[in-house]
What we know:
By secondary structure, the chain is mostly beta strands. It has helices at 2-24, 132-138, 147-150, and strands at residues 27-38, 63-77, 82-91, 104-116, 119-127, 157-167, 173-180, 194-201, 207-217, 223-235, 238-250, 259-273, 276-286, 296-310, 313-326, 337-348. The chain contains three helices and 16 strands.
Amino acid sequence: MRAASFLIIFSILSFHFSYSEEKTGGRIHGSIIGDYFYKAGGDLQQYGDSLSQYSQPIAKDFQGFEIRRLHLFYDYVISEQFFTRFQLEGNNKSLEPGGRQGLYVKTAYAEWKNILPSSNLLLGLVPTPTWSSVEGIWGYRSVEKTITDFRNLGSGSDMGILLRGTLPTSVALDYALMIGNGNSQKPENDKYKKYYFLLGGSPFQYFSIEAYVDYEPAALGKDRTTWKAFLSYTKGRWMAGTEIMEQVQHNQDTLYNNFAVFGVSVFSWYRFSEQCKAFGRIDYYDPNRFSPGTDFYEYFLSFGIDYMPVNDIHFMPNIWINTFTDKSSAGRKKAADVVPRITFYYTFD
Length: 349
């Protein structure tokens, strides 16, 4: 019922778009990501938080087709200075009570352009600066999220206010400042807020750099601080990048223990032609570097080919692997999740 209501809304917007595009600049666009996958290796056993999206409840030899993620956008230009966006998202985790894939509001905001020189102000359910720029350079969100997103250490949108733009310096530097509820797409449930800051740019030819930090306090002396550093090199047909991230969590459990989630991601792609690229990525992940004897070190690997018969359609045979290595001396074993996939990615406008 909820999905049907969203579709009715978009039908109305489409009608308005069809008859008023020249005056208002209304635009509908979107994307669909899906896979055929086969779980060639792995088990259902879980130790602590050490599991992947293909661990539970997916057993070895399971296979299927899925729509992993879809987006619907409606953009509306009010004037040269004011822009609005409404975005719906559906994914294989957003299920309705009956088990069908549902839709939810991912972003809904107004943007005031050039409120300051070379700076825009966004208000509403806005995209956070946590991983959007890194995701754009990596270019394969259709295959997997960037490491901070993949390990659920933030949210792609939050209810709040965001100021982003370019600093008036001799070297082009982009920045973002944001205050949000810290509860992603859900309503606020406490008095505390989350604070975001990003600084990045291309100070040297072919190189992009970025530094990011966010801080989120909570009751009972709890808080979370996330920092990230990113560096990439892009020249001609080739790109290589690396991202380092850590989230320190204070007083998080009933014993008021501290946690430090740490990870490093290295990724690259190479363009053979206008229709074909190769891509690869390797991640290292420690769910708590403050605790050397619990959980598992995890290593994520993904490699594949991106075939584009036209610009807006991608077919990507790829291999998705997440391995587990016991951090303790107990020698516990957890089989690697090994999933060959054929991923398809479509955009429409």
